[in-house]
Amino acid sequence: MNKTELVATVAEVSGKPKADVKEVLEALLGQIIKTVKSGEEVSLVGFGTFKSAERAARTGRNPATGK
């Protein structure tokens, strides 16, 4: 499911206009991104936890040459 499908489904279930649902969804996602970028963690009980983590680089491989 992509964002457009999510907006349509939530609008249908809630009876709210798609424009209102899209505005709320974008505000929610924007705030989650802003909070995670600031180094904090966002925890939505029953849904998930969003946090930033550093990972070590990995060595890539060229599938054409094998190197």
Biggest sheet strand order reads 1-2
Tell me the total number of β-strands: 2
What is the overall shape? extended
Q: What does the main sheet amount to?
A: 2 strands, antiparallel
Question: What's the gist of this structure?
Answer:
This protein is mainly α and 67 residues long. The protein has helices at 3-14, 18-37; strands at 42-44, 48-50.
List the helices and strands and how they pair.
Layout: H1 3-14, H2 18-37, E1 42-44, E2 48-50
Antiparallel strand pairs: 1-2
Helix pairs in contact: 1-2
Provide an overview of this structure.
It is a single chain. This protein has 67 residues and is mainly α. It has one domain (3-50). It is 48% helix and 9% strand. The protein has helices at 3-14, 18-37; strands at residues 42-44, 48-50. The two termini are 36 Å apart.
Give structural attributes:
2 strands, mainly alpha, 67 residues
